[in-house]
Amino acid sequence: MIDIQNQPDYRNIPIDKVGIKDLKYPIKVLDKDTGVQSTVAQINMYVDLPHQSKGTHMSRFVEILHLFRTKVSLESLTYILEDMKEILGAQSSHIEITFPYFIEKRSPETGSKGLMDYTCSIFGSSNGKINTDIVLKVAVPVTSVCPCSKEISDYGAHNQRGEVLVSTRFKKFIWIEDIVDLVEASASCDIFSVLKRKDEKFVTEKAYDNPKFVEDIVRDVAKALMADNNITWFSVSAENFESIHNHSAYAYIEKGSAS
Fold first, then answer.
1. pTM here?
2. Is it the case that residue 10 has pLDDT exceeding 90?
């Protein structure tokens, strides 16, 4: 059978990234408490395509992933990227893995158990010139209370849910749980999936006693990340989905050497 993808192309234009997007696939992620956690990821995989090639072999991306099956993890990322280059005859390879990660949390007063989900992403790239570049991104929902509102109001302060995004490059393995803990400690209060009345009273009062602007949150997270010698680069953003405005409040900090 004729393989059209192997035919030459005469436009003399290389392609930076070509591949597959939004493939759902089971993976296993290291869990600090239980050892391993199974989840389902959404995966994007790309390679470069030289100017003389008409197309890449899309089915080979899925075949490569299937070789690793449930062994897809932060540890196996380097091997997957190298296989992508070798099997597809490419100079560079890229993979993006996004998945829900679950952490069991107890409510602060009654100890009621519930699972919190955090959206995590792992971005891997290899171009043959430097070591494999890996970035871990974690999205953490938080509560914030406005310091200005508390200062000027007689009857309380407006509060809202927000989201903190932390992306990191690191020297050695980093736990998702450690990033989550760091962010939640920097907010007015963390968020829980289960709250009884005693718990709701506690988190409401804790947040009120600990008001934070988005500027405060990103600075506190950045300060903690800067103190960690394992972190070589990071970006952190905080977005408050304002309760009394029709817009969000936003702040962003980036530090370190990006690969």
1. 0.92
2. no
